[in-house]
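Postdoc handover notes: sequence design on the structure in folder B. Input tokens:
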């Protein structure tokens, strides 16, 4: 399946959830089913009895009348300029008020994140750079090293260890191939758990773990980036005091939506979402906005993917359930979760099931 097709399917499904024509769990089931069948997604939803053709047309018209928001591409800095002693060689990523560059500082390859001067007013967590500064004292093979952090006249900045040129963001890889081989999903999950463990041992919480914040190195290394760098989603004030609810709603733990501050257990929840996504090609909860996702995160169990993906061992879902427990006290710590990934890997290896998984969706 092409990346643009998958994004179009997600857009259609999420809008159907927003219009209350489709339940979030049914959208997840449809996305899982699609990996097994060759129907266009809209036809599949009709074939499964989840939507009528008239409702598909209604969703299409809604997307025409009210298209999904386009991310602003405005931000500080341009390719070729020098900022804070870093020559910006290539724009790597961008979001409202934020740009990430590959560059060099005194011949040292680095990445430079520039934040607009009004980024906090626009929703950046107020202590984001303090978390990054605290991470400067850490050195761990599963964390990107933070070299420098602070504020300048142009806004906030973070200078990080540069990942190798052939590295890729996990989020981009999943967009391109759909899902990972199970052995890779387990390995990446374990390495992310170890990186989170290092943060938690230092008294830090990531707050914004998602697929975009995991870097895959060409030699097989896995590194977590952007601890603390998270924004307030639209509608966040309805779920907690102003300035408390931050992060990607798809990965947000129930206690955070209930107004509690993020903690190590909420990072584990985000990793549970991420592992489900890597192993199945879809997230356990789906919707267009925080308002669509919050009721699912707070109240609904995740869909069991092994009931749809025929070769997926049920033990994969068991691990996901532990990490996605609604009660944070029932989730494993990072070190325990890393060990559980080891146990799952050994079980899969003994069963010989690993090779049955494809690293892409069927065409």
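Designed sequence:
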């Amino acid at each position: 399946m092409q990346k643009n097709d998958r994004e179009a399917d997600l857009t259609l499904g999420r809008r159907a959830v927003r219009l209350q024509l489709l339940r979030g769990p049914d959208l997840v089931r449809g996305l899982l089913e699609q990996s097994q069948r060759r129907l266009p997604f809209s036809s599949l939803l009709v074939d499964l009895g989840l939507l009528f053709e008239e409702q598909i047309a209604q969703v299409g018209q809604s997307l025409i009348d009210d298209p999904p928001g386009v991310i602003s591409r405005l931000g500080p800095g341009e390719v070729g300029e020098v900022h804070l002693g870093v020559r910006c060689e290539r724009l790597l990523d961008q979001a409202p008020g934020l740009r990430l560059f590959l560059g060099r500082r005194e011949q040292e390859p680095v990445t430079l994140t520039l934040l607009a001067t009004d980024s906090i007013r626009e929703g950046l967590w107020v202590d984001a750079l303090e978390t990054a500064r605290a991470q400067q004292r850490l050195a761990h093979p599963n964390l990107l090293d933070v070299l420098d952090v602070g504020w300048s006249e142009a806004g906030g900045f973070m200078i990080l260890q540069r990942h190798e040129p052939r590295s890729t963001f996990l989020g981009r890889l999943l967009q391109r191939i759909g899902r990972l081989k199970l052995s890779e999903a387990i390995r990446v999950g374990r390495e992310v758990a170890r990186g989170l463990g290092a943060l938690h041992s230092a008294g830090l919480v990531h707050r914004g773990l998602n697929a975009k914040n995991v870097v895959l190195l060409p030699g097989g290394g896995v590194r977590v980036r952007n601890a603390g760098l998270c924004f307030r989603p639209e509608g966040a004030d309805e779920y907690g005091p102003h300035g408390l609810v931050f992060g990607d709603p798809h990965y947000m733990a129930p206690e955070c939506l209930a107004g509690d501050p993020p903690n190590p257990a909420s990072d584990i929840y985000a990793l549970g979402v991420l592992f489900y996504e890597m192993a199945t090609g879809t997230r356990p909860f789906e919707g267009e906005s925080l308002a669509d996702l919050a009721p699912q995160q707070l109240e609904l169990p995740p869909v069991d993917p092994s009931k749809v993906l025929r070769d997926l061992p049920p033990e994969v879902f068991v691990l996901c359930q532990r990490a996605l427990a609604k009660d944070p006290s029932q989730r494993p710590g990072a070190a325990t979760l890393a060990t559980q990934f080891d146990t799952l890997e050994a079980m899969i290896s003994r069963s010989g099931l690993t090779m049955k998984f494809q690293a892409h969706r069927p065409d």
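Context for whoever picks this up: The first helix runs from residue 3 to 18. Don't rerun without checking with the PI first.
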